[in-house]
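Q: Study each token:
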Amino acid sequence: MIRKSLLLDEELVGQIAILSQKDDRDFSSSLRHALRIGLLALQNPELTAAEIKDILEARAEKAAGLVKELALEDL
């Protein structure tokens, strides 16, 4: 992982600090997560941030083996 220094205004730092407490993450992890969602939102303007978070969560659950494919006969 590359380390960089950057300047953030106090309001943004406060928002990330609150996000880190809500999501039970450290500050750096919260900043990386918010940045990832922001970059994905720029690349996919038709999706909301909530939809992007849901997609990322679903991918993580699938990777962890917590979900299975739905079969038509199960409907």
About this structure: The mean pLDDT is 93. The two ends are 45 Å apart (CA to CA). Residues 52 and 74 are 27 Å apart (CA to CA).
